[in-house]
């Protein structure tokens, strides 16, 4: 055998080696959310999730040791990106951008079904409560950065009650879209942003 052939044999992957394909991971996440929206967390079947993704159950367990880790990574993969926490130059502009991006997320049919199920399930299932608490903590850290920018611009006082301010940031839109299943117009979003900014300045 020639030298080049030997080198190629050394570089070749072992037969049967598992290859983690990113596109399948994405498909599994999408299938998970579809199954979750249809069946709820308690009845979530990994077999059905894998079938939706066109894969076998082994594809899930090659990536995650349990349903808990699978769901956690899926939620974290999208949870932070549901809102816009970036700097738009002023507190009012930051709040408006946050509400607009969150409005887009809350209008997604899967999200509108999954969020109420998560909130209900956290009262019954410790692993869901832990997962939701972790995601909420990460999102609130981004929200605190938004508030800190406003403090640095002298738009908010340094002694601001940040926890109350963060509650105010999301509560009106959550109530309107998730609790009451309404779709606010962009004009209503703008009015919410003005009201929220005024409320946060009073914190």
TrEMBL record:
Transcription recorded as keyword: yes
Keyword Transcription regulation listed: yes
GO MF terms, alphabetically ordered: DNA-binding transcription factor activity; transcription cis-regulatory region binding
Domain HTH tetR-type: from-to ranges: 22-82
DNA-binding region: 45-64
Pfam families: TetR_C_11 (PF16859), TetR_N (PF00440)
PANTHER family for the chain: HTH-TYPE TRANSCRIPTIONAL REGULATOR RUTR, TETR-FAMILY TRANSCRIPTIONAL REGULATOR
Name of the protein in question: AcrR family transcriptional regulator
Organism: Aurantimonas endophytica
């Amino acid at each position: 055998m020639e030298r080049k052939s030997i080198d190629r044999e050394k570089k070749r992957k072992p037969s049967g080696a598992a290859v983690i394909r990113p596109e399948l991971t994405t498909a599994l996440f999408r299938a998970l959310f579809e199954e979750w929206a249809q069946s709820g967390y308690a009845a979530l079947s990994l077999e059905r999730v894998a079938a939706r993704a066109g894969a076998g159950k082994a594809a899930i367990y090659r990536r995650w040791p349990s349903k808990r880790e699978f769901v956690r990574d899926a939620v974290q993969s999208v949870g932070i990106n549901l809102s816009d926490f970036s700097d738009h130059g002023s507190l009012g502009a930051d709040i408006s951008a946050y509400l607009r991006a969150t409005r887009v997320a809350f209008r997604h049919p899967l999200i509108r079904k999954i969020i109420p199920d998560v909130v209900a399930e956290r009262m019954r299932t410790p692993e869901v409560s832990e997962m939701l608490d972790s995601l909420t903590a990460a999102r609130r850290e981004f929200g605190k950065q938004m508030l800190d920018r406003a403090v640095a611009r002298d738009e908010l006082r340094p002694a601001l009650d940040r926890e109350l301010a963060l509650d105010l940031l999301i509560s009106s839109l959550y109530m309107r879209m998730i609790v009451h299943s309404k779709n606010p117009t962009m004009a209503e979003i703008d009015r919410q942003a003005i009201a929220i900014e005024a409320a946060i300045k009073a914190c």
